[in-house]
Amino acid sequence: MPICIAQAPFSHPPPAFSIPKERVSQMNIFLAAVLGELITRSINLLIDNSCKPPTAPDVEDRLRRILLRAQVIVDEAMGRQITNRGVLQQLDMLRDAMYHGYYILDTFRYQSHSEEETKGVDLAALKEGYVTEHQNHGSNSNKEGRRLLIVVELVGTLTEDVWNRLYSGSVEHVPSGSKIIVTSRSDEIIKFGTNQPLSLKYLSHEAYWYFFKMITFGSMDPEMHPRFARMAMEIARMHNGCFIGANMIGCLLSDNIDFHFWCKVLGFLRGTIRKHVSKLGGHPFDLINEKKPAHLGRMCAPSEDFVLHYEYQRSSQEDVPEIRIQDVIYGSVKAQGKFEALGWRSRIPPYHSYINVCEIRGLKTTGTKRKRCMKNGVTLY
What we know:
Largest sheet: 4 strands, antiparallel
Low-confidence stretches: 1-21, 114-122, 124-129, 139-143, 367-371, 373-381
Radius of gyration: 28 Å
Oligomer: single chain
Order of helices and strands: HHHEEHEHHHHHEEHEEEE
Helix content: 40-55%
Strand content: 15-25%
């Protein structure tokens, strides 16, 4: 809560004290943390008391108002440079509670809207080294005092020699006071870091739904379209936290606000996942997260098998394929053999494009062999 000190009139003496800006900032952070703790407890209390769908509209309204306050605090805190670990932990707890609260609220609101609509939706709707990811120049325009933020993603095995070359290059060419963030899928980089490592985890189911909803509906209010929101929740659950799927399907649905088309997508996803699990023993989006080939099929061409082999990225300055993954799976794009398709474009720096190596194969058809018999030396079919 900001503290304002009014300037006294000239006829009166100046105030005997003043509060430094640093102190005011600390008080703001402290008050935000306290309010965040209270809101977190309120959200959890309402969720615990909502074991069954609420019948009174005031319960939903109270939860909506509390979630709105939580969202304001989270958005405000994200714009500040908070370094206090205790406040950051409270912010994480508040964010998780907010995602959980929104998920519970949306579940009550949309899934109870019309359970009968979901019946019959199926076939009815029918190199070793490193790569510099991003360099962000500081706001200081003075060249001598300029600092850099360099993000490096390891794409191979990190050896002592590779690390020494990276470190020597940074000492020689990177201005003093700069920061280097090294990312990798392997835990072996922990021994090379100078600070405590941060482990990135998959989003919780509630947080993933919040992310998917923002992509799918954008500025459109989901409350005004409960049937679409209910289907979007079910589609989001099928993706098992896959970011590629969220960006790909979310953009596809956003570009095609048509109830029958969404039904077809939902039915196709159900059939694809069921077939993939029964034949290959695993969820296709789990294989995508693990960078393994996945068989996804094509909605408009059931006789073709669409295989997603692997993904790589290109910088914002490089050309990207005109064909999109969603156009191949859910559209009528004609392609054969191996080719490249655009998976999605990042909305944050350094704005990389993620390219997928794909393949379309014709499904093998096993025709029924006609029985043969011999009669009077003549072969009969």
